[in-house]
Amino acid sequence: MFLEKVTIKKKIEPTIYYKIIASYRDKDGKTKHRLIQNLGVLYETDA
Fold it and tell me: Which pLDDT tens digit goes with each residue over 8-36?
């Protein structure tokens, strides 16, 4: 599992979302990612 930071750039200020992602292998053995939990938004002014 890992924490993913997703930044959406907007005109006023960027919006930052955090997600918990789990890695797994499919039936063919390829690595995939699965969203476990969306933790929400963190604004630059809150950090």
Answer: 888 888 888 999 999 999 999 999 999 99
Q: What is the spatial distance between Cα 8 and Cα 13, in angstroms, rounded to a whole number?
A: 9
Amino acid at the residue 32: K
User: Which three-class secondary structure state does DSSP give residue 46?
Assistant: coil
Full domain range(s) for residue 31: 2-43
What number of other Cβ atoms are within 10 A of residue 35's Cβ? 10
For the chain, how many structural domains are there in total? 1
DSSP state of 14: -
What strands, in cross-sheet order, belong to the sheet with 2-8?
Answer: 2-8, 15-25, 31-43
pTM above 0.70, yes or no: yes
